Amino acid sequence: MKLAMIQMLVEPGAVKKNLDHAGDLIKQAAAQGADCALLPEMLDTGWCHGSCHKHAGPIPGGDSCAALSEAAREHGILVCAGISERDGQNIYNSAVLIGRAGRLLVHHRKLNELDIGHHLYAQGDRLGVTRIPEGNIGVMICADATAREGVLAKSLGYMGADIILSPSAWAVRPDHDNIREPYGRTWTEAYGQVCRDFRLWIAGVSNVGPVTEGAWAGWNCIGSSIAVGPDGEQVVQSPYGADAEAVLYVQIQPEPRPARGNAWHGFWQGKT
Q1: DSSP state letters, 59-112
Q2: In three state form, how does the secondary structure of the chain look?
Q3: pTM of the full structure
Q4: At what angle do helices 185-198 and 257-271 cross, to 10 degrees?
Q5: Model confidence pLDDT, tens digit, residues 120-174
Q6: For domain 2-271, which architecture applies?
Q7: How confident is residue 255, by pLDDT bands cut at 50, 70 and 90?
Q8: How many CB atoms lie within 10 A of CB 189?
Q9: What are the residue ranges spanned by the domains of the chain?
Q10: Residues forming a β-bridge with 171
């Protein structure tokens, strides 16, 4: 599977502009032969932005989900992205995986939201893996990867995932010095252990651009999107910076099923 890692600018509250931009980048990825496009967390409203109360819609059926479904169908590409969701009185930080025909394959609601997002987003309640010709694909969102002892990513491994896709929003303080403190160790460590234990792939894609509301107002989302292979080693990392929009491509080859089974057995042996 050729994966397009779409590290796009997300402008907080500019829903139509963000969705149109995502559609253009999905079209670009399909033209480059990508099988799947992975986009950031909350790409419609921006992470921790109050416009979700106005713009969040149902999944499927809402404007954001419909726009991504149409892009997937029109360009014949898998699309995984984070969007806002409304279900009754609740707003969720959600992600979708949409098939080439525009049909919803996986619907995830973020489980390990940071404390600063709790005033906006309800508690997630699901994990999912879909089985398609390219492999078994699971979906999580950003800090789901850092849940205690990696329990959420490991659960996707036990559910049979060959590939875990993770829409994300990775932010730093305005004075962060990436030369002195290169960004990304949190994610390479969290992803790496699960990849090694289950012989799977994890790709996380962050947006770039400002955080304008909430406890982190004034911070910047800075990309640095990564893919980690079954040996736990980073395969690719996107550029760092609040304006470092980029599309990177990585060829993902799921490991044969027998090797995966042996890895699971070894994992349990190491814990007992």
Answers
A1: TTTSHHHHHHHHHHHHHT-EEEEEEEEEETTEEEEEEEEE-TTS-EEEEEE-SS
A2: CEEEEEECECCCCCHHHHHHHHHHHHHHHHHCCCCEEECCCCCCCCCCCCCHHHHCECCCCCHHHHHHHHHHHHHCCEEEEEEEEEECCEEEEEEEEECCCCCEEEEEECCCCCHHHCCCCCCCCECEEEEECCEEEEECCHHHHHCHHHHHHHHHHHCCCCEEEEEECCEECCCCCCCCCCCCHHHHHHHHHHHHHHCCEEEEEECEEECCCCCCCCCEEEECCEEECCCCCEEEECCECCCCCEEEEEECCCCCHHHHHHHHHHHHHHHC
A3: 0.94
A4: 110
A5: 999 999 999 999 998 999 999 999 999 999 999 999 999 999 999 999 999 999 9
A6: 4-Layer Sandwich (3.60)
A7: confident
A8: 14
A9: 2-271
A10: 221
Which amino acid type is present at position 94? Answer: S
CA distance 113 to 47: 11
Token pair of 255 as six digits: 């490991």
Asked whether the beta carbons of 106 and 137 are under 8 A apart, the reply is yes
Q: Give the active site residues.
A: 41, 110, 142
Tally the residues of the chain: 272
